Amino acid sequence: MDFLIKITRVFVSIGPVGLISVLFLFAGLIVSRNKLILLKNVAFTYLGLFAFSILMFFYIMFFNPIIGTIISSSSKTFQVIDTGWFIAQKVDIYTPYTIFIFLFLIGINVLMLFLRLTRTINLDIWNLWISLFSGVLVYEITGVYWMGFLFSGVIATVTFVIADIYAPYLENYYGIRGISVPNPPTIIWTPIPNLINFLFNRIPFVRKINIFYEEIQYKLGVVGEPMVIGFILGMIIGAVSKYKEFSYNLWPSILYSLFSGLYLAVIAVLMPRAISLLYRGIIPIIYDMKTFINSKFTKREIYIGINPMILAGNSSVIGLSAIMIPLTVYIATILPGNKMLPSADLVMIPLILIWAISLSRGDIFRSFISAIIIIPIILLISTNMTGFITDFLTDDSGKQIVKGFNNYSSMGMGSNLIYWVLIQIMQPIFKLFS
């Protein structure tokens, strides 16, 4: 057990970029014939992920000024803060129990494959983290081991089934054959874009409203290039961030808007290049894995479960995220019942949009409508989960984890719809053990 604990801590400590690359390396050593080519592909995978993660960090940081402006312009006082990844680090306290749940979740994936209940082989342990966290949190609430396993197992099972259903949409839109994304906090919202498409296709005038990034680029020519669109969006966001200062500080505000445009233009240009580098490494490894599985085990179609981050660099995803990230904060300020300030987990927005955009086949209008429906639900569920997550994160010392806040939640860890529904159903049982 001590050895497993040490291994777990090492894997968690290297972070998503290193871990994804290591997992592809281990898988490739088993399935690839040419090890030198494998090493080259893994190197491209790591470089692409590393470049993308840096760009995504600066991309999210870009929105801090406009988020500050939105919050300062609102009279709303937030009682809950979005703690993001900090919750995942807290799980390490329960490492022995965590390892048992983690092995249990891997076992569920293997069992479902043998029983033909799923086609997905999950290659990314971060996809299991929400299921794992759910079990640990339930154990914290009840002290009952089996209940934690039950929650984790149900969430993982439903996630694998949904991942199979929507895998073809990812393949058709993003062009990577044989992948799925069994990521609970993002894939659970796929029915909403599906419903939007179903309804819009049956409304005479609305079904003709389509906005595709590729069509914009074709019609506008140079003006439709990612660099120019990034510059325009960045300049608008910069201007909105400084709108209060335009009346008395005009030229510095204009310069700030221009530099904001350049900032986002650079990201818009570099992001596709990072993704191209990533795909150059990851696609051959996935192909080798599928070929190996089909030749050794089964002829049926198998999906390789990957991290949603790998798909989040798409131009339509990045462009719509530039609108939705500040809009999410604005919605938080006006949404009745919401008490949480979205912050650390705003990076989740592009990961949700990979589904909205792929299910609408790249239609930005329909994806926007889907996101406008999904975001308020996420905020309300995260607010509702505050009590559980706060109790999980805090101890009797009363020390604040985030300065100025005593209540904590998470848009990523605390908004899973399946988990929330199970919590509501099981609350009477929880009270028996609390």
Please describe the topology of this protein.
Elements: H1 2-13, H2 15-31, H3 35-62, H4 64-73, E1 80-82, H5 86-90, H6 95-114, E2 120-122, H7 129-142, H8 145-174, E3 179-180, H9 184-187, H10 191-200, H11 213-220, H12 226-241, H13 250-296, E4 303-305, H14 315-334, E5 340-341, H15 348-359, H16 364-384, H17 386-393, E6 407-409, H18 417-433
Parallel strand pairs: 1-5, 1-6, 2-4, 3-4
Write a concise synopsis of the structure shown.
The chain has 434 residues and is mostly helical.
Question: What is the beta-strand fraction?
Answer: under 5%
Instruction: Extract low-pLDDT stretches.
Output: none
Largest sheet: 3 strands, parallel
Sheet with the most strands: spatial strand order: 5-1-6
Let me know the number of strands: 6
Kindly, what is the distance between the CA atoms of the first and last residues, rounded to a whole number of angstroms?
Answer: 29 Å
State the helical fraction: 55-70%
Question: How would the global form be characterised?
Answer: globular
Number of helical regions = 18
Please compute the radius of gyration using only Cα atoms. 22 Å
Would you tell me the overall average pLDDT? 86
Structural class: mainly alpha
The tally of structural domains comes to: 1
Query: What is the string of helix and strand elements?
Result: HHHHEHHEHHEHHHHHEHEHHHEH
Q: What is the chains' assembly state?
A: single chain
